[in-house]
Amino acid sequence: MKKIFTYLGIAALSAVLFSSCGLENKPAVFDDSFAFVAFDEATMNIDEDSKDTLLVPVTLASVSGLNETISYVVTDTLSKKGARGGVNFDLVDSTGTLSFDAENRTQYIAIVPHPDGAYTGDLTFTISLNASANVALGTLSLCTITINDIDHPLTPILGEYDLTGEDNWDGVSTWTLTIYKDAEDDHMVWLDNLYNNSGWAGAQVLRFYGNVNDEMTSIVIPLGQEAEYAYSNGKHLYLRGLTGEGYSVESGNLVATIGTNDDGKVTLDFGKELGVWVTIRDTGNIGIIWPGMFAVKK
């Protein structure tokens, strides 16, 4: 089998060399008839009380560095989730245009957010670019801006924690647990890396959810829930509890009691009865943490 792959590799390489030597094969030349303008990012966000200005980059791709003015349109809506210009944000430059040349191939739309003092949830608006006679639109011709609401009732418990627990393989360990708010439910949070495996963390689809009570004294995390992510065999990440005797618990709840330490930092006490055991169903273990987990907000 190894020889077969060797011969195939040589044949493929020969084909590449043969085709590249043909006189008719000339390198592609990009000229300014293909110039385009686009946002560098499709989405950006900023806290409503930020003291910084959000700079939204826009790049005009051309060979010579065209002298060109591109216009853009801001769309703010009156919907519940729509940010309004002059109320939730201001544009530093109200002309609605960006000027490019050889020295300024990337320009910025500057946005200043405004706190509103009320819980509205995160608000969004969009900016769309317009083509010109000489410049087409690139793939990212629209950018969605999110203004993060700082008045969310769960704000005090959101963010990063140092979570300490006894890992089944690594012993007593400390890792980063991050708690995110839910986009719709202001009593729900999403827990990222509850199970000490950073290789299976960092994305919404890998998180498990918990519900916060009205008094904000506990997070109730249902056992038996599946994360959105599915492995190549179609099986999902699955959260179960683990007793001190090593038994799996697939129903009920893991409860984290919310408190504060002597330094005034938020703490999460997961109790002594249950740890976490995360698997891909019928496939393998992702993380096993014994009872006694405790977290302190960074």
Outline the structure in words.
- It contains one helix and 23 strands.
- The chain has an eight-stranded antiparallel β-barrel with strand order 11-12-13-14-15-19-20-23. The chain has a five-stranded mixed beta sheet with strand order 5-7-3-1-9, with no helix packed on it.
- The radius of gyration is 26 Å and the shape is elongated.
- The protein is 6% helix and 45% strand.
- The longest helix has 19 residues, at 2-20.
- Mean pLDDT is 89; it is low at 1-23.
- It has 298 residues and is mainly β.
Task: Please describe the topology of this protein.
Blueprint: H1 2-20, E1 36-39, E2 43-47, E3 54-61, E4 68-75, E5 89-91, E6 97-100, E7 106-113, E8 123-129, E9 136-137, E10 142-148, E11 159-167, E12 171-181, E13 188-192, E14 208-212, E15 218-222, E16 226-230, E17 236-242, E18 248-249, E19 253-260, E20 266-269, E21 275-280, E22 284-289, E23 294-297
Parallel strand pairs: 1-9, 2-10
Antiparallel strand pairs: 1-3, 3-7, 4-6, 4-8, 5-7, 8-10, 11-12, 11-23, 12-13, 13-14, 14-15, 15-19, 16-17, 17-18, 17-21, 19-20, 20-23, 21-22
Sum up the structure in keywords.
298 residues, 5-stranded mixed sheet, 1 helix, 23 strands
Give a nutshell description of this structure:
With 298 residues, this protein is mainly β. Helix content is 6%, strand content 45%.
Q: Which oligomeric state applies?
A: single chain
Structural class: mainly beta
Please give the count of helices.
1
What's the total count of β strands?
23
Query: C-alpha Rg, in Å?
Result: 26 Å
**Major beta-sheet overview:** 8 strands, antiparallel, barrel
- Indicate the mean pLDDT: 89
Strand order within the widest sheet? 11-12-13-14-15-19-20-23
Query: What order do the helices and strands follow?
Result: HEEEEEEEEEEEEEEEEEEEEEEE
**Helix fraction by DSSP (H/I, runs of at least 4):** under 10%
Percent in strands: 35-45%
Instruction: Report how far the terminal alpha carbons are from each other.
Output: 54 Å
Shape: elongated
